Amino acid sequence: MRPLWKTIPPLLAALVLILLAGIFWGQVRLFPLDAITQTILWDFRIPRVLFAALNGALLALAGVLYQIALRNPMADGFTTGAASSAAFGGCLAMVLWGHISLTSLTAIASAGLGMLLVRGIAARAAVREEGSRVTLILAGIALSVVAGSGISFLKYFFEDSVSTMVFWLMGGLSGAAWPKIGLLGLAVAVSLAWLWHRRDHLALLFLDDASAQASGVDVRGLRGRLYILTTVLVALSVSFCGVIGFLGLMAPHAARALWGHGLTVQLLTAPLLGASALALFDLLSRIMLPGGGELPVGIITSAAGGIFFFFLLVHRGGSIWGK
Amino acid sequence: MGQVTRAEKGGNASDPQEHPAARAEHPGAALHCRNLECRRGGFSLQVEHLSIKAGEKIALLGENGCGKTTLFQALAGLLPFRGNIEFIAPQGEGERNQTGREAEFLRWERLNPEERARHMAYLPQEAGLLFNLTVNEVLALTLAGQRPLQGEARAAALRAAAMEDFLERPFQALSGGEKRRVMLARVLCRGCVFTLLDEPTAPLDMRHATLFMRHAARIPGAVLAAMHDVSLALRYFQRFLLMKEGRILYDVAKEELATDMLETIYGIGLERCGDLVMPEL
C-alpha cells in the first residue's frame, strides 16, 4: 500500500478541484463578478459545496467508526437504525410543528432514543459481546423497518406535509447555511481530534475483544462511546439534509480497497473520499436536469454509489473487508 | 477426590524452578489467587488457592470445557469474579501510596485494564484480526504507555514464532498456523511479567511448536499455558495444574506428575515413558 504522504495530497487536490467545480459550475455563470453573482457565490455556491463536502466527510467517518465498533462490514447509519429513527423524528417535527427549524433537535433526540432501544435489546438478548454486536445490527434493521412504517403513517395522515417530507427524506443539500456548516465542521474536527487522541486504543479494537481488553482497552466503554459519537454524527447529517443513502457504507469500503486498512489511513481517506463524492454528486444533481431543475442528491448517491460498489466488489472484492 | 495443592503440602515447590532471569527482570513479582469463584452461564470455576511467581513455566491441563479459558479470562480481568487476586508488582514498579512507600500488594480487580495490561499478556484461543494489516502493523498494536520488547529480546521473540521473514506480509493472506504465530509473536513481544496462553501450539506443526516452547521456557516472565499436547508440556514446563470440572485437582511439579493424575482428569487409560504420554492400546 502507498504511504500516507503519497495518498493524502492527491485526495486533497481532487477534493479542492471538485469544490472549485461545484462553486463555479452551475446554471448561472459567475463571471464577470458583480453584486448579484457575488451574492450567489457567497450565499449559495460556497456554502452549498462546503455543506456537501462536510456532510460527506461526516457520513463516511461515521461509517468507518460503526464498522470498527461493531466489527461488521454491513454496519452504517442505516443498518444500526440511527438514520431511520432520526428521519422519523424529523418527519414528526414537521407534522407536529409544521416548521423545519425544530427538525434537527427532534431528529437527534429520536436517533438517541433509537440507539438506546437497539443497545438495550442487544444487551438483553446476548450473553456474549460477540453475539450482542450481531443482535445490534439485527435490531437496527428491525428499527429501520419500524421507523419506515412510522414515516409512512405520518405521510398518510398528514397530507399537507407530504411533499416537504418526501423531498427531505430523499436527501437534499439546498438547506445549506453558514451556521450549519460551522456546526458540521466543528463535529468533524472534534471527532477527528478525539479519535486521534484515542488512536492506539481504537487500533486495538482491530483485534478480537479478549486480546484488545487484555492489551489494556476498556472495550465495552470505548465501543459505547464510539456508538454514541457515530449516532450523533449521523443524526446531525440527517437532520440537516435528510437521508443520503449508501455513502456511509460505501466510502469506508472503497477507501480500504483503494488505500489500505490501517486506522490512520481509514480515518483520513474515507472522510476525504466521502467529501469528494458528495460534493461531486451534488454538482451532478444541480446540472443534470435541463431547465434549471435540481435532482435530490440522495437519488444520485444511492445509484452512483451502488454501481461503484459493484465495480469494487468485482475487481477488489477480496481486499475490501480483509477476511 | 481431594484437591492436592502445593499449599497443603506445606512446601513452596516453585522456588527451585524460579527462572534466574526472572529474578533479575521482574524481582519479587507474583500473583496470588484465593477462593476465586467465577460463573459463566451454567458453568462455575472455583479455585481455592493458586500462586504464580515471576519466571514460573506452568502448563494447565484438562479436558475441553473444564474451565481453563474461564480461569484465564478471570486472571486477565475479562470476567467478573468473587474472591481475591493479589498482585505483587516487581520491586521498583509497585504503586506508591500517599506516604511515598511502595504498596506491596495490589488488588488485581481494582486495576484498570491499562494497568493490568502492563503486567499481563493474554493470548486467547481464537485470537483474530479485523481488516488486513501487515504482520509488522499487528505487532505494533499496543498502547502508548506500554513498553514492548526492543532489540535482541524482540528479535528472539520473532525467531521463536518464526516471523522474521513475514513482517511485511498481509495478515489475512497467511495460513491458520502462520496467523497463530503472528499472535504468539505479538504476545511475546509485549514482554510482560505474566503471559497467559490459551492453547498456543494447537494449530502449529511440530517444528514451530518446538521453537515456540523452547523460547517460552526461557523467557524471564511467568508463562501459564493451556496445553493439550501433554508430552510437549512435559518436555518444557516444570509445573502442572490439572483441572477438572472447574476445579484445580492437582498442582504439582513435573517430577510429581503421576500417570494416574492424568488418567483422572482425562478419564482414559494412559501410558507414560519419560516425557512421552500416550493413550493405552
Walk me through what this model shows.
The complex is a heterodimer of chains A (323) and B (281). Chain A contains 14 helices and no strands. With 323 residues, chain A is mainly α. Chain A has a domain of 213 residues: ABC transporter involved in vitamin B12 uptake, BtuC (Orthogonal Bundle). In chain A, helix 3 packs across helix 10. Chain A is globular, with a radius of gyration of 20 Å. Chain B has 281 residues and is an alpha/beta fold. Chain B has a single domain, classed as 3-Layer(aba) Sandwich (Rossmann fold), CATH 3.40.50.300. Helices cover 28% and strands 25% of the residues of chain B. Chain B contains ten helices and twelve strands. A six-stranded mixed beta sheet of chain B has the order 6-7-8-3-9-10, with helices on both faces. In chain B, helix 6 runs antiparallel to helix 8. The longest helix of chain B has 14 residues. Chain B is globular. The N terminus of chain B is likely disordered. The interface between A and B is medium-sized, with 26 and 36 residues.
Task: Tell me the strand percentage band of chain B.
Answer: 25-35%
- Biggest sheet descriptor of chain A: none
Average pLDDT figure of chain A: 87
What structural category do the secondary elements of chain B indicate? alpha/beta
Helicity of chain B, as a percent range: 25-40%
Number of domains of chain B: 1
Q: CATH superfamily membership of the domain at 32-244 in chain A, which one?
A: ABC transporter involved in vitamin B12 uptake, BtuC
Q: Globular, elongated, flat, extended or rod-shaped: what is the shape of chain B? A: globular
Report on the biggest sheet of chain B: 6 strands, mixed
Shape of chain A: globular
